[in-house]
Design brief:
Blueprint lengths: L1 H19 L4 E2 L1 H11 L1 H21 L5 E10 L18 E14 L3 H67 L5 H36 L8 E2 L24 H22 L4 E12 L8 E11 L8 H67 L5 H35 L6
Parallel strand pairs: 1-4
Antiparallel strand pairs: 2-3, 3-5, 5-6
Keywords: Cell outer membrane, Membrane, Signal, Transmembrane, Transmembrane beta strand, Transport
Protein name: Outer membrane protein TolC
Organism: Pedobacter antarcticus
Length: 430
């Protein structure tokens, strides 16, 4: 039972150390919040929404009259018009024109309305992409957090096994000094301990790199002592949110983008068809023509006009073929939508089964760990009784270390799979 006391003592040691390092810890919720506030990807998504809103305002301006002003001035070194007394006492060598024209489109085949619908859709698309960016950042944050959690727990396992091997090494040194064992038994323990120390060194280096990457991602200063506060609870088997996979795609960002893509193709077809329909517009123009010279007065000219444009030749020429191409493109988009819908459902189903497998892996890993722990206790008792060799004891210790490592990996993988499933079903908590 000695190993149990060693593990319990080491657990309290780690707990005391964690309490002393509270300023160097972070929770999963705090990590998500920091990542959302810092992410440049999310910032760009918000800018994309602002750009789309500006585009919508620009499209809405097409409902207003189009107004333009024109000014022309002419000057010649010779007279345009010679003097004609008594009607024109002086020749005219300059002239000007100033006018304003306003045009209002009454009907353009629905192009203005369709353009506004497309602009409004771009806002919706950018909002979906912004949510997609948020979900991506949250998913990556969770993945990095649970990866660090695994490394953190693996470090505890290696430290506990190092303590255990140090105890065996001390015991072997005492036995060798008393002449009760061969030097070869002591060397076997040293070799096992050296392997563990090398593995621990590699893990520590990898953990520092992972912490640096994590800090960069969520936008906090690098802290080599950073601890993941939400540890892996290996005392119980975590449950899955639902009893069956949720194949409802309504909350899936990719599905929503597929829908918008199909709707966009339909609107583009309407826009193309509108190019070959009649257009009607009314306008008013007011201008003044005159000369700066007093010899010739100015004249005010108000004009009202109407324009009807009928693109007749496009109905059977190039326009007809372009409209046919647009119709075909719309059908292609419909087929792509169906394919994308099927692939998303397949992805959800695969993610669900991966999650189920991860939960089963936890059960298997826990069973292996319990058996390895019992095997170490029995082997230790047999060694103390002279029924097992030091090699048997070291093998049992290595098996327990591997079993605990596999259990930690199984738990970390489960939480990563859970985050992936929630993400693909649109249920990743913000």
């Amino acid at each position: 039972m000695e190993i149990r006391f060693i593990y319990i003592g080491f657990f309290f040691l780690l707990s005391a150390h964690a309490m002393a390092q509270q300023n160097h810890s972070i929770s999963l919720d705090e990590s998500k919040k920091a990542a959302l506030e810092y992410s440049r990807v999310i910032q760009n998504s918000e800018l994309g929404i602002q750009s789309a809103e500006a585009g919508k305002k620009g499209a809405a301006a097409n409902y207003l009259p189009s107004v333009s002003a024109t000014g022309i001035g002419l000057y010649n070194f010779k007279d345009f018009i010679s003097a004609m007394p008594p009607l024109l006492t002086e020749g005219v060598n300059n002239a000007y024109f100033a006018g304003v024209t306003a045009t209002e489109v009454l009907y353009a085949g629905g192009k203005i309305r369709t353009a506004n619908e497309l602009a409004a859709m771009q806002i919706e698309v950018n909002k979906i992409r912004a949510k997609q960016s948020r979900d991506s950042v949250l998913l990556q944050t969770e993945n990095k957090y649970w990866t660090l959690n695994k490394l953190q727990e693996q470090h505890k396992t290696l430290t506990a096994n190092e303590t255990y091997l140090n105890g065996i090494l001390k015991q072997q040194e005492d036995l060798l000094a008393s002449g009760l064992i061969a030097r070869n038994d002591l060397l076997k323990v040293k070799v096992q301990r050296s392997k563990l120390l090398l593995e621990k060194s590699k893990l520590n280096n990898g953990r520092k790199v992972a912490i640096l990457d994590f800090c960069f991602f969520i936008g906090i200063p690098f802290d080599s002592l950073l601890v993941m506060r939400d540890g892996l609870d290996t005392a119980r088997i975590p449950s899955i949110d639902a009893q069956a996979p949720d194949l409802d795609l309504s909350a899936n960002n990719d599905y929503q983008l597929l829908q918008k893509s199909l709707e966009s193709e339909q609107l583009q077809t309407k826009m193309t068809r509108a190019n070959y329909l009649p257009s009607v517009s009314l306008g008013f123009s007011a201008g003044r023509v005159g000369s700066i010279s007093n010899s010739l007065g100015s004249t005010f000219m108000p004009i009202a006009f109407g324009v009807v444009n009928v693109p007749i030749s496009d109905w059977w020429g190039t326009g007809k073929q372009k409209l046919r191409q647009r119709t075909i493109s719309e059908k292609i988009a419909g087929n792509r939508f169906k394919d994308g819908e099927d692939q998303l459902k397949v992805g959800i189903l695969k993610s669900w089964y991966d999650l189920e497998d991860a939960q089963k892996q936890i059960r298997f890993a826990k069973e292996n760990y319990v058996q390895a722990a019992e095997n170490l206790v029995v082997t230790r008792d047999n060694y103390s009784s002279g029924l097992s060799s030091i090699s048997d004891l070291l093998d049992a210790q290595a098996q327990l270390q591997q079993a605990e490592s596999e259990q930690i990996t199984a738990y970390g993988d489960f939480f990563n799979k859970m985050a992936s499933y929630r993400s693909i079903t649109g249920k990743l908590l913000h």
